[in-house]
């Protein structure tokens, strides 16, 4: 394993040369006191006063965190996210001061991940570079992951393991097409807003062969990610928390999990660019108006049994199935009234009805609403038209990748 | 006017910008220390603390700034400090008063950003219980000041406001009849109407109808009010235990840190247990008022909130604090975050009775007098 001195040098090489350059590019928003504190942190860092620098970083992180939690996320001034990212950067590097033990380096990587999750890009995406260096350092010190005998076939399932696989033969199914032309897809599905499963489109992506629990732990195991805990996000006991991918797998996938945990709706491929090499962007996205950089790519990784309640999204969606199968039900936006959306602003895009166990006394019209359903298997791509209601349940340990485009 | 023992102001918590808090050394003070205000022993009668500076107002009408903002000025009856604006109420030339908004970085030199004449409350500048409370509520109770534009915000006269407090994105108002109103963003349950919806206009807290409130306080994302009988009602975000309700902990139980942060800067939280020792169900958000069943020994008479902590004063002069403690703002000689009220022993040990508490976002200022010998 490379010594701590080598790690420190590698990190120094990533940082700007002068302390004047060691700052995020900010507008007017943050104000004088924050600017003072940023400058002080940079000076303490350059002066080798690590402990005091860490204290200044904590104040920067705590203050910007409060700003990140004020107002809707979309309206948070980017400057606060930059300040947050900067605090994470200095904190991460300070924690790696020799002799950086494994716990400190892991904490430093966690700080990088917090900056990647909640901050905004600074200093030429420096957090991604620092994270890569830290990850490499952590992995070089570890023995290879435990033997493959703990792989999917022997993943212990939850106690109540009656996984009802819906009898889709009694339901109207989503049509399937093999590699339709762009024009055909546009005319028959995109424009009229009709769901379709595309075969032969993603089945040769590297992820289809490469991804396994073992591989994911290798590439992303020590990285911190957001996890949803609870059966579904409409439940009272539902919550979100942060943990490493290893912790997530050990707690919610292996070892007979007590609760449902779901690594859901997370832009994992921005956080870990190495994984992005294993996927592509479906060609059909070029039929949209937006730029390729604006396409939101989310990872959905979880055990058998995760449920996304019936809801609609404001963009077109290609849902690519990589590991395991998912049961998916789709309702047209025309049926919205029969789906009884919540009347709160927060949940107006979510139905009150539990699709596979509906309370028909409370929601009588639901029984008559027509729908399409399918079991989506690895290699297949489901097109979910914009605003189309969809319900998803994982039938196996599952990994899906969604592409939101316009 | 009764003879009052001259008391002392104390401070604890974050002082990373050198705000006069105790010795002012280091970035945090974990246990109450007597204030050393710049300019010597000033006769401070009120304190308004923002994140990076504190404004002290003296009985002689002087405002003194300490921390990232500095400067002093006379003829001042009230001050309200925020990062964006320092608002002063100054005695006008005639019998009116003037409201001034200054950029904190101006050191009170030159001209304020804006100013306007305001109606002085009846009975002159000395405030008693029945008159409109301090800034950001204006003495006439017809309007209040906001740190973000529009700075001057009228209030419906029918509201008969007595006290008004601002959180990060909400407002609380106590009226002359002891009713509480709230408005603003509600994402963290801070409005208390039972939902997470925003309210554009002051809305009465129906859950408190029938009760007469005496005090209100707003934290960053939580709200507290005290009834005339000394009960505490609390609602909003509980992510750091600021509601004194069980909160999900990210760190191990039972650990305390003294004198600083953990290696990786993580905070330590102590989680309360249910009666059988099992962890109580966690409450992240409390969207309508909860009555705190606390045996504090005597009734709660004053309350103040920081960003994520709460401080309550009892009739017998004891101070209780809870919530986020990372910067020592709870005053318990450590940096533990607590989700249950704890008495600040310093004042008991020194035989002091706490009379006033005023929280900045990450710190706490307290005025205490010596216990009268019976």
TrEMBL record, chain A:
Pfam families: ARM_KDM8_N, Cupin_8. Residues 261-406 form the JmjC domain. Coiled coil: none annotated. SMART domains: JmjC. It is found in: Nucleus. Its cofactor is Fe(2+). Its main location: nucleus. SUPFAM superfamilies: Clavaminate synthase-like. Residues 141-161 are annotated as: Disordered. Keywords: Biological rhythms, Cell cycle, Chromatin regulator, Dioxygenase, Iron, Metal-binding, Nucleus, Oxidoreductase, Transcription, Transcription regulation. This is JmjC domain-containing protein 5. It comes from Rangifer tarandus platyrhynchus. The lineage of its organism: Eukaryota, Metazoa, Chordata, Craniata, Vertebrata.
From TrEMBL, chain B:
It holds the Pfam family RCC1. InterPro entries: RCC1/BLIP-II (IPR009091), RCC1_domain-containing (IPR052830), Reg_chr_condens (IPR000408). RCC repeats lie at residues 178-229, 230-316, 317-370. This is RCC1 domain containing 1. It comes from Rangifer tarandus platyrhynchus. The lineage of its organism: Eukaryota, Metazoa, Chordata, Craniata, Vertebrata.
């Amino acid at each position: 394993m490379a010594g701590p001195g080598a790690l420190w040098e590698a990190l120094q090489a990533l940082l700007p040369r002068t302390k004047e350059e060691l700052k995020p590019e900010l507008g007017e928003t943050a104000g004088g006191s924050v600017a003072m504190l940023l400058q002080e942190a940079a000076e303490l860092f350059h002066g080798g006063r690590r402990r005091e620098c860490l204290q200044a970083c904590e104040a920067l992180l705590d203050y910007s965190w409060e700003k990140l939690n004020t107002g809707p996320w979309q309206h948070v001034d980017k400057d606060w996210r930059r300040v947050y990212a900067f605090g994470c950067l200095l904190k991460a590097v300070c924690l790696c001061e020799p002799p950086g033990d494994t716990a400190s380096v892991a904490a430093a990587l966690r700080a990088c991940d917090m900056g990647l999750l909640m901050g905004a890009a600074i200093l030429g995406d420096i957090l991604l570079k620092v994270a890569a260096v830290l990850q490499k350092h952590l992995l070089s010190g570890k023995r290879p992951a435990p033997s493959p005998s703990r792989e999917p076939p022997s993943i212990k399932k939850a106690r109540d393991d009656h996984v009802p696989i819906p009898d889709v033969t009694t339901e109207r199914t989503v049509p399937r097409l093999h590699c339709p032309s762009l024009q055909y897809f546009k005319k028959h599905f995109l424009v009229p807003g009709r769901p379709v499963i595309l075969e032969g489109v993603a089945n040769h992506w590297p992820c289809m062969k490469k991804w396994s629990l073992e591989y994911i732990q290798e590439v992303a195991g020590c990285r911190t990610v957001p996890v949803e805990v609870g059966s579904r996000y409409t439940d009272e006991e539902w919550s979100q928390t942060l943990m490493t991918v290893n912790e997530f797998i050990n707690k919610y996938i292996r070892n007979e999990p007590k609760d449902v945990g779901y690594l859901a709706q997370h832009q994992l491929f921005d956080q870990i660019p190495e994984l992005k090499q294993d996927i592509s962007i479906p060609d059909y996205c070029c039929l949209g108006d937006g730029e390729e950089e604006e396409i939101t790519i989310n990872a959905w990784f979880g055990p058998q049994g995760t449920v996304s309640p019936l809801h609609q999204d404001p963009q077109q969606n290609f849902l690519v199935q990589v590991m395991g199968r998912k049961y998916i039900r789709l309702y047209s936006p025309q049926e919205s009234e029969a789906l009884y959306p919540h009347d709160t602003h927060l949940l107006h895009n979510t139905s009150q009805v539990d699709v596979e166990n509906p309370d028909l006394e409370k929601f009588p019209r639901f029984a008559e609403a027509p729908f399409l359903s399918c079991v989506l298997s690895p290699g297949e791509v489901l097109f979910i038209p914009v605003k189309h209601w969809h319900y998803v349940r994982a039938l196996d340990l599952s990994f899906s990748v969604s592409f939101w485009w316009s | 006017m009764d003879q009052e023992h001259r008391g002392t102001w104390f401070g604890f918590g974050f002082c990373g910008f050198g705000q006069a808090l105790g010795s002012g050394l280091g970035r945090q003070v974990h246990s109450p220390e007597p204030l050393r205000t710049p300019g010597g022993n000033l006769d401070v009668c009120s304190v308004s603390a923002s994140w990076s500076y504190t404004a002290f107002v003296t009985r002689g009408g002087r405002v003194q700034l300490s921390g990232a903002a500095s400067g002093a000025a006379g003829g001042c009856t009230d001050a309200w400090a925020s990062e964006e604006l320092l608002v002063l109420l100054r005695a006008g030339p005639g019998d009116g008063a003037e409201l001034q908004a200054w950029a904190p970085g101006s050191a009170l030199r030159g001209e304020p950003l804006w100013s306007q004449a305001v109606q002085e409350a009846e009975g002159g500048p000395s405030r008693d219980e029945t008159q409109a409370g301090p800034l950001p509520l204006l003495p006439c109770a017809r309007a209040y000041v906001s740190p973000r534009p529009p700075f001057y915000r009228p209030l419906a006269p029918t509201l008969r406001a007595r006290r008004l407090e601002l959180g990060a994105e909400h407002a609380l108002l106590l009226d002359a009849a002891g009713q509480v109103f709230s408005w603003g963003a509600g994402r963290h349950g801070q409005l208390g109407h039972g939902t997470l919806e925003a309210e554009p206009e002051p809305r009465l807290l129906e859950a408190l109808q029938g009760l007469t409130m005496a005090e209100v306080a707003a934290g960053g994302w939580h709200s507290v009010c005290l009834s005339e009988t000394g009960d505490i009602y609390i609602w909003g975000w509980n992510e750091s235990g600021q509601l004194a309700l069980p909160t999900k902990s990210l760190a191990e139980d039972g650990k305390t840190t003294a004198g600083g942060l953990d290696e990786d800067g993580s905070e330590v939280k102590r989680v309360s247990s249910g009666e059988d020792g099992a962890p109580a169900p966690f409450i992240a958000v409390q969207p309508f008022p909860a009555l705190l069943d606390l045996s504090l020994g005597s009734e709660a008479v004053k309350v103040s909130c920081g960003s994520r902590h709460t401080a309550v004063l009892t009739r017998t002069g004891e101070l209780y604090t809870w919530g986020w403690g990372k910067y020592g703002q709870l005053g318990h000689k450590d940096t533990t975050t607590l989700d249950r009220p704890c008495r600040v022993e310093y004042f008991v040990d020194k035989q002091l009775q706490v009379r006033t508490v005023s929280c900045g976002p990450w710190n706490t200022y307290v005025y205490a007098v010596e216990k009268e010998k019976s």
